[in-house]
Every structure is written in structure tokens, then in C-alpha cells.
Design a protein that fits this description.
This protein is an all-alpha fold. The chain contains 14 helices and 2 strands.
Length: 339
């Protein structure tokens, strides 16, 4: 018989779990920050930097994505030349500039004095008032389009109904009735080229007025109240305080707000695209450069020309931003003073 020796019994308290792998302290301290920011850089490379570089490359190619990547054909600057000689592009650029002036400039002409009035006069319920102006900015574009499509309706819209009631008022009723009679008894706000652009411009003005109001109100709250008290003691009226105290100190905020307006209006897309049916002939009167680029890429399949147009708009926005900086006295060369 073979004798069997029993295996030694190890107490559970003496069992040690395997040690986890750990980097040396010095190396872990060096690598840890990069590991934390790695997701941001990965997302930035995939969704920001790559599309940016690819759009530059695409603007030099002639390509229809439906035929695959192998159909790319190098054309150099031909897409830029084609865009600059296309009359449709210049018509869209004119519409964009028209919206920028008619819808963009009044935003600041109204928001700035309105913010000053709310800051100086409205004490109770200020947040409620500012919130009411800010609501359109955070409202969905589709919801805004549905609301104004109903308001602008030719047959059942509230605006035409209100105009019909105003025709009964003396002095203004007769010319208003004559104007509505020229429009077949009702104004087709989204179907008549004469009034479609002003109608869309009003929607843009109404939506972004609250945003500029909040910007200017935040700038006013930073201004020292002692300056207004000193101006009051010197006999300055409220208009003089606004002109000589408020406006000079609000220049940085005005530069920021106007810059955002320039960028936003030159990229205007949602409001005219949703409000006006693209199949109607009147759609050409509100076709901005962003809408034209969209149709060039996704309707005509010419992604190269659309990319070239986008970079032309980038150059235009950069140039207007530089002009805006010079107008507000923000010359980068003088930021650190004379040396």
C-alpha cells in the first residue's frame, strides 16, 4: 500500500489576493492628466478637426458622394471661381446681407436702451421680465415656425384679422384697406415676395432680441453705481449718463454682441428654411447663403462647390469681425500698449 500524505492546509487569513498592476508613482503622475483629457481630444479630432480639414480638401475636389470616395477629382480652385461667378450665390449673399441689416441692427438699437431702462427702473420682477424676453431664444425653431405660420396665414391668421379691424379706424383705415385690397383682400405673408422677407426678418429680430438684452444687462450690472451717482451730482440727465457713462463702458460687451450677430446672421438658416416652402417661387427671395450651400450639397450633389462657398463665407465673416473690432477700438496691436 502506498501511503498518501495529506496536503497542507493553509489558513484563509494567510491567503493574499494578487496585487493590482500599478504604475510607478512618478510615471502615473505624468500620464494621469493626459488620460483625463484624452476623451475630449478624441472627440475634437473626430467631430471638429477632421471635418474642418476634410472640408478644405473637399473644396478643391469635384465629388458626388453617391458615387463613392474613388470618384473624387482634383479641380484646384475651380470651385471657388465657379462660386464667385454664380449669380445665384450673389443673390443668396444679398439676401443674407439684407437679413443681417434689417433683422440684426434693430436688435441692438432696441436691446441696448431697453436693457438700460430695465436696469435703472425695473426693481421688482426684473428676472421675470428678462426671462419673458429670453424665452424666444431658447424656444425650438420648429415651435416658432408653427406659431408664426399660423399668425401669418392669409385666410385665418391673427395678423390679417387685426389688420382688418384696423381698417375701420379713421385716417389709417383707408390706406390700409387700399393696401389689403391690392393683395386680394389679405396679405400672403409667406407667399408674396414683397412681404416675405420682412416677415421672416421680424421673426429673426423677435427671437434674438432677448439674447442681446441679456448680454447688455449683464454688462450694465458690472458698471460701478458710484459713477452714476457722481454724474447725478454733477447735474447730468439720464440721457447724458447713458451717452457719456454707459455707452463707453459697454464697448467690450457691444463688440461681443455685435460680433455674435454678424456670425449668426451670415449663417442664418433655420427661420427662412422652415417658414417658407422651398418649392414655392418666393423661396428665392429668402434664400440665404447657408440655404444655398445646403441645396448645392444635398440637392445638387456638388459637395465641392458647397465646401468652397463655406470657406468664402468664413473669409467674409473674419473680415467683418476685424472691421467690427476696429470700429469698437479693439486693435490687437494696441492691446499691450505702445512699446
Amino acid at each position: 500500500m502506498s501511503s498518501r500524505h495529506p496536503s497542507p492546509i493553509v489558513e484563509p487569513s494567510r491567503l493574499r489576493p494578487p496585487r493590482p498592476f500599478r504604475l510607478p508613482p512618478l510615471r502615473s503622475r505624468r500620464i494621469a492628466p493626459y488620460l483625463f483629457i484624452a476623451p475630449f481630444f478624441a472627440l475634437f479630432l473626430v467631430f471638429s478637426l477632421f471635418p474642418l480639414v476634410f472640408s478644405i480638401y473637399l473644396s478643391l475636389q469635384q465629388w458626388n458622394p453617391a458615387e463613392g470616395l474613388h470618384t473624387m477629382h482634383w479641380v484646384g480652385l475651380e470651385n471657388y471661381g465657379y462660386a464667385l461667378t454664380d449669380p445665384w450665390f450673389w443673390d443668396a449673399l444679398y439676401n443674407t446681407a439684407w437679413f443681417a441689416l434689417v433683422a440684426g441692427v434693430p436688435q441692438h438699437l432696441v436691446a441696448l436702451p431697453l436693457a438700460f431702462f430695465i436696469h435703472r427702473r425695473v426693481k421688482r420682477g426684473r428676472d421675470l421680465v428678462v426671462g419673458a424676453y429670453f424665452v424666444p431664444y431658447i424656444t425650438s425653431s420648429v415651435a416658432i415656425a408653427l406659431i408664426f405660420t399660423t399668425l401669418y396665414s392669409k385666410d385665418y391668421g391673427l395678423i390679417n384679422a387685426a389688420l382688418a379691424e384696423l381698417t375701420r379706424i379713421p385716417f389709417i383705415g383707408s390706406p390700409l384697406a387700399a393696401f389689403t385690397a391690392m393683395k386680394d383682400g389679405g396679405i400672403d405673408w409667406l407667399g408674396d415676395a414683397d412681404v416675405t422677407r420682412p416677415a421672416v426678418a421680424f421673426v429673426v429680430f423677435w427671437r434674438y432680441l432677448g439674447w442681446n438684452l441679456v448680454l447688455y444687462l449683464s454688462g450694465l450690472q458690472v458698471i460701478d453705481k458710484d459713477l452714476y451717482e457722481a454724474a447725478t451730482l454733477d447735474g447730468a440727465t439720464e440721457w447724458q449718463q447713458f451717452r457719456h457713462v454707459t455707452l463707453p463702458l459697454l464697448k467690450p460687451m457691444m463688440f461681443f454682441a455685435v460680433t455674435l450677430t454678424i456670425i449668426g446672421n451670415l449663417q442664418l438658416f433655420e427661420e427662412p428654411f422652415i417658414l417658407v416652402d422651398g418649392e414655392k417661387g418666393v423661396a428665392s427671395s429668402v434664400m440665404t447663403t447657408a440655404i444655398f450651400m445646403y441645396r448645392t450639397a444635398f440637392s445638387d450633389g456638388d459637395f465641392g462647390t458647397a465646401s468652397a462657398m463655406s470657406w468664402l463665407m468664413f473669409v467674409l465673416i473674419a473680415a467683418l469681425t476685424w472691421v467690427n473690432a476696429r470700429l469698437f477700438g479693439r486693435d490687437p496691436r494696441s492691446a499691450h500698449g505702445k512699446r
